[in-house]
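Before any further analysis, we paired sequence with structure tokens, yielding the entry below:
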Amino acid sequence: MDLSFIRRAFRFELKDIIRIAAASVIAVVEFILLCTRYPEACAGIVMFLILIIPTFKVSGRFRFVCDLIFPFYCGLFIMYYFQLGCLYGHPMTEALSSFWGYLLIQNRVFYEIIFVYVVYFVFRLLMMSPKVAMIATPVPFLLIALINYYVFQFRGHELVFLDFFSVGTAANVMGSYSYPLFVPIVFMVLPYVLFIMPFINMEMEKSKVHAAVREAVFAAVSALCVFLSMLSAKSWFADGNHIFREWGDMMSVANGYYMSFVQSIKAVIITPPDGYSADALNNYLNEQGYGKVEPLASSGDTANIIVIMNESYSDLSIYEDITGKTKNPDPYWDSLKENTIHGYAMSSVFGGNTANSEFEFLTGLSMANLPTGSIAYHSYIKDNMYSAVRALNDSGYDSLVMHPYFKDGWNRLEVYPRLGFRKMMFIDDFKFTNDDLICGKVTDRCAYENMLSILDEHDKSSDTKTFTYMITIQNHGGYYFDDYEPDTYSTVFDEYNNKCYNTFMTLTNESDKALEMLLTELKKKDEKYVVLVFGDHQPELALTDASDFMAGGRAWVVPYIIWTNFDMTEEQMNGLKPKGGVTSFNYLAGDVMRAAGFELNSYFASIESVREELPSISSSGYYLKDGSARSRESGLPDGVAGDRMRYYMYLQYNILFDDNNSSLFTNYVYN
């Protein structure tokens, strides 16, 4: 029997001994660091080491077999090690016994792996040999994973495609951060080194196929893989079970990081609405009688305005079919009747992406007219633009935004001045002690006390009315804390989810007590105040299924109130009640202005005209005035409702993506 091929494969010249020894050292280090927590990762390391020992030789006529095996093998490596590295130390992975099991249960491996095929066959098209393509293919995935890891460390949510357009801003702050190396090296770099070592040493004969034929085949295969990758992403998010989520680590947790990253590319693809032109927009404005924007008019003394976007504030009683009947966490909220409007609004986000809720409220525009997965603050507010802030500034108000958290989140430092805020306060500007923290975050009560103090100081030194916009942080997820014992509201879940649910409900109760304190203090003031409080989105808890995310689904519903410390007229009260019982954030600025005693100017009046036909518009869809819910994929409704929605789309496109040159803003000066 001829055993020469074994001698050729298992040769031990000096260079082979050095290679195997180096790989063994790396493998031992990896094994020690991974064995207790991720034994399946160790199994992969052992397999890589075994494959390093022989020297593989592939004849020219069998190179095609490599093209069948290599991208699949490479894809499994990338999907496991690089994504595990991105999620190492996160609550989700800490609770898992098998990361492979998690990937397989989600059934996402075979959706994401096609992206690896695309890269591999593009490299083959570029005339790389199978072994060089195999070495090169993980590199772009490794680089994206490394960048994503550090981006998450710095800002608390993951890398999206549009972040590459902000590379200049990122470069300005890179020196302010530290760069931990343990996770990137252990989970990404060293496994990659072991993974490629067998291919570096591989001997491969030249292909027997003519170059032109080979290139034609790889061009066709590459094109097919690109098509399949687009189909994969579309089908993953179109099945009703998966929603693009950007906040925190949800890109990796919910859909897989690479799938989510590909989906985020859609946010840069902006096309004008059908029939759009600046002339078409201006013709509509002229026909409807909407002239250029003027300061808000009023017939009497207007009120100071406080708007509180309360982090994750929600009415979870809508899930009683799951949780059972629970005690009420916000009795004070429910007790408010006098000079109070209660309503529900449809949020465009769930479990995160707070900035999109801010965008809708402050601008009167809607995420329904922007790509799924986009973040308006990151991507679209590049210049000064009109907003509720500017409308009130123009009417003589002092504007202040307050957020008891870090200033570098959601690009707020750049966006707020562009929207017109004259003063900003972040966590370093708040007065608080450790007693004012709950689960490591500033309490609503402390935030409101700071706000009251600011307003008192303002009243002593100025007669100017105020617009104060507060974004709270107390109720921000996650909701599992080892050192925090919440009250018991439900016990229907497992231990982990019970604690998360009960923590959120306990925090909601704390918010309710803080609101009572705030409104009690405002009742004592002689100055008139209007207060709007609304939740930005629901929390991420074990309550929803796919049906809850359909158009009009309950996952999007959040409560709001408009309260005044003075008597509203019956006409005001009736005018502010949400039509059909539900509205959306893009309309609430107009409501609070009217509650304060203003008449809407042409900009907000034109948006209010959309509301007459479409009482609620959000990323999930819209409500018609007959109460029916439609997804935005269903297209524009017929008749007047369709005309109003078309105008709204034209207006938003003109403001964000054209020259903002509608007749509304003729000669408008952005102070």
In short: Residues 495-523 form the longest helix (29 residues). The first strand starts at residue 57 and ends at 58. The two ends are 89 Å apart (CA to CA). The chain has a mean pLDDT of 89.
